[in-house]
């Protein structure tokens, strides 16, 4: 993996080079093993938190981990194109608009002892901006090359705090073209429902049950690219103990192994349906 500037990453994408890089400021990683009509993203996988923010932050390291999406990059790392955030959403949230990306409060609790200085906020927003420059370049290239593209936008959620039964997998579709892509959504939901997990973990997959797919990452791509479907895919945190901060690597591995087959199968079916 190379450390590259955003301009260098974009130049490599435009030249259709394969590479594996971390951004110069260590804010995100991008791996392109080959150019295919699908990409995977894990925008909330990151846990890094800039040290100059530590003393001003009221949330503990555990509270930050609890609201992040740990292990989501590992679930899709075998695929040809993987884009992932390295920084915690508590510094800036890649799935929110630039105006809302730096929190003042987070999950009902004030985040900072003292309001962030403008310079600190700008440093975080610059990382947010650079990430979306790369998103734009990547999806532009994939649409230019293939005509259509599907993005698997991987997230996780804390299922134990719900006071009702919730699905293992949730697809958020309220901001995509369901008339055009509804069959592909249902096909993806069915594939997710077929995944088998260790320890007899119950497997269900639903659409718009816990989340509706209102994230900025999905909206940004959907609003800027007319032939790219973003599938906001949430797994309940059955792959960890969300209260003890313990990850279950055998569950993560089971998800990753089955997605190795199911995800490209779905992407191939999508491409064959919508290619010109």
Explain this structure.
With 276 residues, the protein is α/β, with parallel strands linked by helices. It is 37% helix and 20% strand. The longest helix is centred in the middle third of the chain and has 29 residues. The radius of gyration is 18 Å and the shape is globular. It starts with a strand and ends with a helix.
Please write out the topology.
Layout lengths: L1 E3 L1 H9 L4 E5 L4 E5 L5 E5 L18 H7 L4 H5 L4 E5 L19 E2 L2 E2 L7 H29 L2 E9 L11 E4 L5 H16 L11 E3 L8 H9 L3 E9 L3 E2 L4 E2 L1 H26 L2
Parallel strand pairs: 1-2, 4-5, 4-8, 8-11, 9-10
Antiparallel strand pairs: 2-3, 3-5, 6-7, 9-11, 12-13
Helix pairs in contact: 1-4, 5-7
InterPro entries: N-FG_amidohydro
Protein name: N-formylglutamate amidohydrolase
Q: What CATH architecture label applies? A: 3-Layer(aba) Sandwich
Number of domains: 1
Query: In percent, how helical is the residue content?
Result: 25-40%
How big a fraction of the residues is strand?
A: 15-25%
Written as H for each helix and E for each strand, in order along the chain, the element string is EHEEEHHEEEHEEHEHEEEH
- By CATH, the superfamily comes out as Zn-dependent exopeptidases
CATH topology: Aminopeptidase
Q: What is the averaged pLDDT score?
A: 97
């Amino acid at each position: 993996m190379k450390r590259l500037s955003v301009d260098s990453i974009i130049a490599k994408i435009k030249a259709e080079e394969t590479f594996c890089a971390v951004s110069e400021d260590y804010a995100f990683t991008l791996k392109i093993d080959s150019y295919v009509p699908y990409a995977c993203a894990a925008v909330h996988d990151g846990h890094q938190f800039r040290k100059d923010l530590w003393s001003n932050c009221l949330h503990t390291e555990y509270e930050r981990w609890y609201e992040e999406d740990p292990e989501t990059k590992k679930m899709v790392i075998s695929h040809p194109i993987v884009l992932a955030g390295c920084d915690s959403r508590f510094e800036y949230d890649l799935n929110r608009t630039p105006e809302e990306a730096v929190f003042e409060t987070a999950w009902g609790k004030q985040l900072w002892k003292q309001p962030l200085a403008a310079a600190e906020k700008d440093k975080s927003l610059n990382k947010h901006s650079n990430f979306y420059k790369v998103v734009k370049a990547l999806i532009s290239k994939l649409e230019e090359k293939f005509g259509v593209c599907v993005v698997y936008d991987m997230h996780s959620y804390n299922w134990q705090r719900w006071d009702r039964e919730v699905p293992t997998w949730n697809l958020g579709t309220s901001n995509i073209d369901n008339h055009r892509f509804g069959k592909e959504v249902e096909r993806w939901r069915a594939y997710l429902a077929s995944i088998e997990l260790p320890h007899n973990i119950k497997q269900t997959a639903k659409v718009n049950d816990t989340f509706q797919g209102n994230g900025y990452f999905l909206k940004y791509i959907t609003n800027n690219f007319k032939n790219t479907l973003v599938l906001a895919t949430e797994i309940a945190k059955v792959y960890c103990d969300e209260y003890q901060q313990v990850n279950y690597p055998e569950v993560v591995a089971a998800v990753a192994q089955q997605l190795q087959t199911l995800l490209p199968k779905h992407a191939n079916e999508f491409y064959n349906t919508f290619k010109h």
